[in-house]
Amino acid sequence: ARLSLVDGESPPRVDGARLELDATTSIDRRLLAVAGRHNSVNALFAALAARHLGVPLARCEEALASFRGLPHRMTPVGDCDGIAYYDDSKATKAYIVLDDAARATRTAWTM
Question: How far apart are alpha carbons 79 and 102 in whole angstroms?
Fold first, then answer.
């Protein structure tokens, strides 16, 4: 089976607080236990693949909400004075860290 867009169909995207699978189906990004835009993109495409295989949307949301990520990959380590701290010491791509840092507010990483 192949995933593809139909003419006129909205492409999947991460838009603010939503993972938009298509024009009528989205998942609340706040359900994700993992931080970072790249993790949101990964979650979006995991949900798309699961939906393509017939997995109900509610089950996709449950699975995404329960995924805690891998150690040292955007792992929350604490909060102090409203600043969230993350351990991203296993980051392998500097551009991903920089992209997430540029989008974050009051966030610090340990690397």
Answer: 19
User: In angstroms, rounded to a whole number, what is the distance separating the alpha carbons of residues 34 and 20?
Assistant: 17
| 69-85 as b/e: b if 16+ CB within 10 A | beeebbbeeeeeeeebe
Query: Whole-model pTM?
Result: 0.68
Element (H, E) at 76: strand 75-80
User: Amino acid letter at 25?
Assistant: T
Q: What percent of the chain has pLDDT over 70?
A: 74
Nearest to 110, CA basis, from 73, 81, 66? 73
Residue range 50-72, pLDDT digits in tens: 999 999 999 999 999 999 877 77
Whether the CB-CB separation of 21 and 48 falls below 8 Å is answered with: yes
User: What's the CA gap between 89 and 71, in Å, rounded?
Assistant: 9
CA atoms of 4 and 25, how far apart (whole Å): 16
Q: How many CB atoms lie within 10 A of CB 44?
A: 23
